[in-house]
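Lecture 7 notes: from sequence to structure.
We start with the chain below.
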Amino acid sequence: MNDRHRPATRGLVVTMLVALIGAACGSRKDESAGARVDALFAEWNKRDSPGCGVGVSRSGAIVFERGYGMANVERAVPISPSTVFDVASIAKQFTAMSVMLLAERGRLSLDDEIWKHLPEWANRQDRITIRHLLAHTAGLRDVFLLTELAAPPAAGTDMNDRLLSILSHQRGLNFTPGTEFSYNNGGYNLLGGLVKRLSGQPLREFARVNIFRPLGMTHTSFTGGRGTIDPAHAVGYHQDEGGPHVAREGGVDSSGIVGNAGLFMTVGDLLIWEHNFDDPRVGDPRLLREMQTPVTLSGGRTSPYGLGLEVGHDRGLETVGHGGGDRGIATYVIRYPERRLAVAVLCNSDALGFTVGALARQVAALYLDDVGDGSAPASGSPRVALPLSELESKAGLYRNLNTETYGRVYVRDGRLMASADAGDGPGDSVELTPTGPNRFVIAGTPVVAEFVPESLGQAQQVRVTEIGSTPQVSERVPTGYTPTAVELRALSGRYASADLDVTYTVLVRGAGVVIQIPGRDEIPLEPILRDGFYGSLVDLIRFTRNPKGVVSRLVINRATVRNLSFERVGP
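Predicted structure tokens for the same chain:
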């Protein structure tokens, strides 16, 4: 008998049996996977430790949700499905969605130049668009570093207004818009302010009305400030040699900055949001697809980012997701569209660092059938052991041949570390995991560093690559410059920046020099290169000379703030 002529009741019974058997098998598999998730997070599941909330969903249905460790160690409050976390940069996709909704309603075009909506924007010749901001390709300098380099604001200043003011007065960029991908928090803070200007509602309210409430995300809000602390919020903990210490009371950043961050939510609410990409209820499907499509850079290269979302691959499957990190925070969410599977890992300790992304992928592997365990480094090659002498041969100060910025490679506790800081201290550093004599990776990321030993006429180099980026080549430079007293005196004077509306003073102090930033403590400058000095905050600054050999300006050139110039204006 042809299938279509079977009695309806028989077909219904067969369908029900298949569904029941499939559900039972899936349930047993999910229970087994759940036990292995418990093992992954066992070291955090203690009464004296912060930890993580973990959730997994298939086709929008939550199949696993559990807490490990304490939301509040001091009060012995465990993490549970109702725990609200500060998710840091995971907020960016919600800011992006708010902008996309305004585009859908005709309030803006993604290809509008930003000065059209921010008339105070000074730099119009570089033609930065809203799309550039969404894709991290605008070339903006890091506004949070700029705020530290500027004079402190007056008491009571709204930090969102402060960030807009600083960015809108920048004449210089790190690079030409559209030519590079460079993650930038300030661009998303601008987008949050843009939502307020065009909708007449703060981002907090716009997202609540247009995203969170329609999707039933009842435990999610953009917020900020001490008044928002709630008992359900996880306290954020910073890890150091002495153990975990409170970094964020109630998990809340008191700055009130939103757009790039400032979002609080539960694991369950985050999984509700993830399902909206598979079964759209908020946002036009075309715009949702655009958010998940890697951006093409000028020259044809592909970025690892869409619009508010990271786009990549894991175990042969396409992935879409985002991470978040700050003091007291480590978060990651990843979705596998082909399998309609999503994993969220939200933690209230920065000790997990890069680990949180790897953990999310390991959890996903337990719920996917035909994949490996993901335990190898990002390159797919296993870690190898290198003698200490091999690691020490890589150490030194390196100059990026493209950006003229400096970073340091050094050995600490038998591990090779890399820092964007040019000083001798560790700074914000990451471990370089060896997978060969000269090949290293940053575990949990697609970053690969290849060292090229020095040869006749060429210093040792390190070549860093990652998905979607131009290979960055840096060359080791000799250090140990000792200036004379006359050379030091030639540097003293006042130096003004039009971009920051601030004047620095360089003074001789004994056998050295210091730099004074209004409203901040003096910063001693350590000579490293001829006319190149290192100081905390300013990092490595270079003094330049006019054709007569007289020092005429100083330049701060860091990875995220390039070529910030201060003209000498007086003794």
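Points to note: The first strand starts at residue 52 and ends at 58. The chain has three domains: 86-366, 388-477, 485-570.
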